[in-house]
Amino acid sequence: MNSVISCQNIVKEFDGIRVLDGVSFEVTENSIYGLLGRNGAGKTTLLKIITDQMFLTEGTVEVYGENPHENERVLKEVCFVRENVFCPKGFKVSEVLNLGRSFYSNWNETMAKQLIGYFELDINKKFYQLSKGMQSTVAIIIGLASRAPITIYDEAYLGLDAPKRELFYEIVLKDYDEHPRTIIFSSHLIDECSSLLEKVIILNKGKVLLTEDADLLRERAFLIAGRKDKLAAYLQDKRVLHKEEIGKVVSVAVFGQISLEEQRKMTRDEIELQSLPLQKLFIYLTSNQGGDYHEFNAAAV
Amino acid sequence: MNLMQLQFSTYVRNFKRVFVWVPLVLFMSIVFLVIRMNGHGSYHYSDFNTPLILVLGFAFISLIAIPISNFKMLSPFMSFGITRKEFIFNCVVFNLVMSLVMSIIVNLTYFGQNLLYGFKMQHLYYCGIASLDHRFGTISVSILLYFGIFAILSSLTLLICAVRHTAGMYYGLSIILLVISSLLLFFSRIVGFIRWGALTSGIFISMFLIIVIVNGLSWLFTLRFEILE
Prior knowledge:
The complex is a heterodimer of chains A (301) and B (229).
Chain A: E1 3-14, E2 17-28, E3 32-37, H1 43-50, E4 58-63, H2 72-75, E5 78-82, H3 93-103, H4 109-118, H5 132-146, E6 150-154, H6 162-178, E7 182-187, E8 199-204, E9 207-213, H7 214-220, E10 221-227, H8 228-231, E11 239-246, E12 249-255, H9 260-268, E13 272-275, H10 278-286
Parallel strand pairs in A: 3-7, 3-8, 5-6, 6-7
Antiparallel strand pairs in A: 1-2, 1-4, 8-9, 10-12, 10-13, 11-12
Chain B: H1 3-13, H2 22-36, H3 50-74, H4 84-116, H5 121-124, H6 129-132, H7 139-166, H8 168-191, H9 194-222
């Protein structure tokens, strides 16, 4: 698959403070990515660099093989939907959507109208009279209806209530099936959207912790619980991410392959095996308990 | 809605933001006042043409408001794929168009005022500055003259916005210089040391202009500004 975004050794400093430190990754065409990281990990800064709203201190960024700086052709292909939606004061929702229509050449008016209905949005209201959640709704409508080849949601959907978020994920998936494009979800809340993600980039303290297929992560991250003496044998060739002990019972989050034979053995030894949700994996990887993660390589485990 | 329409729309809706720019308005008013004072440091009501003053004030404030609204309102739209070049080009063109519009409005006010005061027909030929001093020529020259003044004013404000956007320290310094020079000019006129007042005020104004023009232009030409929140 073609690479649409390529970041090589990106460094960004603000007044001598390194916010991004040697970030490198590739984003391939027509995939759904999750850019995951805790608050302050540098997600928004990275996305702003990709969309030419900020400059990098060192490194290179390419979007469709070109430097995005002042590159109208490239920038028009990207729709960057932010959490804090910006809109000129006094503008009505309909006017904000008009702006989206005028900026994006692939704008789909039918879809915009449908989404307005689905999300019960009053387009005659002034934008700043809307609740935070409804403002987020306007932003995601722009993101969806723009049909931009690269659509980035920077925590834009987090202001929505749970049913609307579900609706949003459903619509994204359906639209993606019919009109494949590159979508990046930047978030620190992973559980809800994890089923959508095809690839995951985890950013921690300005560095890329891992870049991996989401399926591979799901297949290799486990939670194993059982008696301490019986469990030890199973942990030898696996990376232990987290450990909890309650009496003689130990619960361990591990990353590694577990064969069918090994699974049968575990059942015999009364060891419980569950797959580890992406959210938990993210928490263990980005918390300080997991040791040195900077060289974490999922494929190699 | 294209960028130009967006600019006009945001300008109309955000007119009140101009009050942030009181120092510049203060400076212009004081300069105007000093110019209109007679030799004894006092002025008479008849020195002022009320409708004209109002329109001029409106024009000045408008032309200060335009670049501010451009900056406030447009820069975040760069997340919609607007390039910096496009953004600056639109700001400059919009400034010039609005300067021309304001210049025509001011001259029409002169024209109307002359009608009101019962000038003879041959005087109506002279409008704007031309009606005050015939050496300035006809209405077209007057429109051009005001257009020049307004274009400089709005461009200067655009540069101040640029400095504010990139180097807050220089922005603060430039505003302080502007306020100091205004006060110097005003008080020197009151106490009668107009020559020294004008000289020192001129020095401060020059420093202000150097800061604003050098920093602002470097901002405009290098296109290296980030969208910070």
